[in-house]
Amino acid sequence: MLRAVAGVALLATAAACSRPASSADAPAIRLITPAAETAYVEVTGLSSVTLDALDDARLTADDWAGVLRVAVSDDGPAVLGAYRVRDGGLRFVPAFPFDPGRIYTVRFDPSRVPGSSSTASAAVVTADVSRPGLDMTPSTRVAQVYPSGNEVPENLLRMYIEFSAPMGRRSGIEYLRLLDDRGREVEAPFLPLDYEFWSPDRRRFTVFFDPGRVKDGILPNQQMGRPLEAGRTYTLVLAREWRDGEGRPLVEEYRHTMRVGAARTQGLDPTSWRVAAPRAGSREPLVVTFPASLDRGLLMRALAVREADVDVAGDVRIEAGETRWVFTPGQPWHAGRYRLVALSILEDPAGNQVGRAFEVDNFDTVDKGPDAQTVAIPFVVRDTSTE
Amino acid sequence: MMRSLSVKTLFLIALLVSASITSSSARAVAVTGQGPTLTSVGPLAFGPDGILFAADNQAAALYALDLGSQATGGAPGAKALEGIDQKLAALLGTAANEIAITDLVVHPQTRNAYLSVMRGQGTNAAPALFRVDGAGKIDMVSLQAVKFQKVELPNAPVANAGARRNPRSESITDIAFANGKLWAAGLSNEEFASKLRAVPYPFNTVDNGTSVEIYHGNHRALETRSPVYAFVPTTINGQPHLIAGYLCTPLVKFAIDSLKPGDKVRGTTVAELGNMNRPLDMILYKKDGKDFLLMSNNSRGVMKISAAEIATAAPITTPVETPTGGVGYQAVASMQGIEQLDLLDAQNSIVIARTNGAVNLQVVPLP
Q1: Which residues, 6+ apart, have CB-to-CB distance to B207 below 8 Å?
Q2: Residues in chain A within 8 Å Cβ distance of B224
Q3: pLDDT tens for residues B27-58?
Q4: What single-letter DSSP state applies at residue B230?
Q5: Are A199 and A290 found together in one domain?
Q6: How many domains does chain A have?
Q7: Which of A196, A230, A261 is the last residue of a domain?
Q8: What is the biggest distance separating any 2 CA atoms in chain A, rounded to whole angstroms?
Q9: Closest chain B residue to A204 measured between Cα atoms?
Q10: Which of A107, A313, B189, B236 is the most buried (most CB within 10 A)?
């Protein structure tokens, strides 16, 4: 009985070479791409005896790959995945989804099915399968570079590059060049770091200038000088080849030109901030103006408004080249006393913190985690209708 | 020269400094379960009993993984494999340029090598963990069967606890197990600061971290803000210590007892190993009766340093005017293109080396 069935299988298998793959009674290899599930490879046209044998088999991964091998190359190991008999076919579900556009070579060897005779089912079926390639038309752009003002300090420590869509995991440093006003590339201006500096959504990349070169008078600074010189103009060039989260290049190269001003070497002085208090009963924004730009990333989280000891909920905008913090409350202001609270980790683009310059020798703790110290600036919201 | 702050600023700060305890200060509590869902996998470390610790940087979390039977059954040791990136990529169904090998560690008992890998570079990038045994067999570790503990890193300081999630992230640059605790060095994409955290194992909570201050001889300043990139536990004069390699590249030792949450700690800088450089990995080993530190770097190759000299070196507390200073090192010319490094056995290291475009798992005799 087994021989007879094997004979049928032999006929069907041999016929597979000359008959269309869609034939219902010959082994055929297909890539199935369900709408909401991982795409998988399926071998159909197998006899019920073959399917039963496969279903009952307890095979090692290597044995399974002998029966049905899915691979990216002929000489490398088979792709890892799970094999199962389901709905009249043998399925291979890869451990990780097949890459769009990549060709996978599939090889079904009936002679390796448990219980098949070595002479019976020799005809191997092979096929190349592939998911449709992604649309590689570029669509991601650089949305903004910070500091966004026209002028940056000579001892600039950090810049942020924001993108219109999530980017790939790779570091961006290899796609960045800094050109001086004669078009010459500045040598090694940035820290040689890897991919750590993406935001969790990979839409923002932080570029750190090498602090060894930025800090005045220290050895790398003495040897190489600061990457930026006051009085000159520089252009940050972001190569189009920087890949987004779908592997596509950027729409276009991006150039960000900045004029370089004097180094900023003083700690931030909150008493120099101008706080324009809103009117009671309104949802007018509280506007805080700084004498010079501050770091955008830290501005977004290191300032808050409190009434008594309760945070006031609202939305924050950063304006005017990061020299203005604009806070619109969710509810109208009450008449009375409020406080603008700044964590001491707030910095300017040169790394100067509240009350503490980047270059100062000091014995303070940089960061005590959530228990960061704060500076508070009181302001009063007045009820102008009664004045 | 120290620049003075304005008197009014000091006055303001003196008056108004307070501890800001927001809801973000709530300490993370460990989660226990089976079949962890890592979103990414970076630095690895083994505990002495074979628990594998892994950092998930995308989720800002640390995992303790009990590999169970998946840690056994392989041939002891780890065999060199040429084109390891090609092999791993083929197993993962992709191309070698689509994967990143993020760490390499050796199991303390079986001496099998474990590799953490990220498959894909884009939004669908996924983590994978592999074991290479002494016969060169590569097995993927199935996380479904793995029992785990997970603890998330405390949130970053925020002034307004109700603010929506911000784009700050914190990456773990290295982890190591010592004295019953998992130590993790962290790096932020906003504050340019260093953070060492200790998490007692079994996990319960994770502390807010210890800021670590060093004297950076090349930077002529107390340097609290340079990130730690690699470190290794050791014992110096009978006391547990960490030896840490910083960016650009001071080598610093700390007494573990001094590292307490929220504290400021001053490490002892014992060497300056050159700028524009980042340490990658460190191991300690013994050769001819002497102890050595082997340290790989991204731009200055592999350095062999006497552990005895680290133990006894005079601290660097004055500016180093030369490119390097303090404890000296021997450049290991036989080890080139080293991207990952661990101790395989008493005679050998195991490395991921990139040479002439090939990425190989190599067994290299200890220098």
Answers
A1: B27, B154, B197, B198, B199, B261, B262
A2: 362, 364-366
A3: 567 889 999 999 999 999 999 889 999 999 88
A4: E
A5: no
A6: 3
A7: A261
A8: 105
A9: B167
A10: B189
Q: ipTM of the assembly?
A: 0.86
* Burial B124-133, CB ≥16 within 10 A → b, else e: ebbbbbbbbb
Other CB atoms closer than 10 Å to residue A3's CB: what's the count? 10
For residue A212, the domain's CATH number is 2.60.40.1220
Out of A72, A103, A130, pick the residue that ends a domain: A130
Predicted local confidence at residue A366, as pLDDT: 34
Query: How would DSSP label each residue in A150-192?
Result: SEEETT--EEEEEESS-B-SS-SGGGEEEE-TTSPBPSS-B--
Which site among A31, A64, A70, A72 would you substitute to test the B interface, given the most B Cβ atoms closer than 10 Å to its Cβ?
A72
Residue A117: pLDDT band (50, 70, 90) is low
Compute the distance between CA of residue B53 and CA of residue B33 in angstroms, rounded to an integer: 15
Of B9, B20, B168, the CB nearest to A374: B20
Query: What span, in angstroms and rounded, lies between the C-alpha atoms of B83 and B92?
Result: 14
Domain membership of residue A136 (yes or no) is no
Q: How far apart are CA A286 and CA A96, in angstroms?
A: 50
On whether residue A137 sits in a domain, the answer given is no
Determine the residue among A161, A219, A242, A339 to mutate to test chain B binding: the one whose Cβ has the most chain B Cβ atoms within 10 Å.
A219
Q: What is the mean pLDDT of residues A168-177?
A: 87
Q: Average the pLDDT over A306-326 and give the result.
A: 94
Helix (H) or strand (E) holding A48, with range, is helix A48-56
The pLDDT of residue B263 is 66
Number of other CB atoms surrounding residue A131 within 10 Å = 16
Strand order in the sheet with B52-56: B31-34, B147-152, B61-66, B52-56, B44-46
DSSP assigned state of B50: S
The region that residue A351 occupies, defined by phi over 0 for left and psi between -120 and 50 for alpha, beta otherwise, is left
**Mean of pLDDT over chain A:** 84
